[in-house]
Design goal:
Layout lengths: L4 E3 L8 H13 L1 E5 L6 E5 L6 E4 L2 H21 L13 E3 L3
Antiparallel strand pairs: 1-5, 2-3, 3-4
């Protein structure tokens, strides 16, 4: 049995361009704030439960948030769990034989 495929509904293969567009769209929805306790940066993406990051600089927080988002997507794909639609970007999971 092959691993599940990520598709935009038109293709039946891994399409890293589609995945990159999805990640970029999700990251555009990220919200960042400076924490008053220590001045570090906190970022999260609404609608992506558990996807958040905290780092000393905004750039590090953005990088960490991207990494967490990518791992979150891979986890959901590995479990055949749905992914939220982001600004018209939709990834669907299909098992192949």
């Amino acid at each position: 049995m092959r691993p599940p495929l990520v598709s935009n509904g038109r293709q039946e293969r891994y399409d890293f361009g589609v995945i990159s567009q999805y990640v970029a769209a999700a990251l555009r929805k990220a919200h960042y704030e400076i924490l008053p306790d220590d001045g570090s940066f906190y970022g999260e993406i609404e609608g992506f439960a558990g996807v958040y990051a905290n780092a000393p600089t905004l750039e590090e927080c953005r990088e960490d948030l991207r990494e967490v988002l990518e791992e979150w997507i891979l986890f959901r794909v590995s479990r055949n769990l749905s992914l939220p639609v982001v600004d018209g970007h939709e990834l669907t999971i299909r098992a192949t034989a």
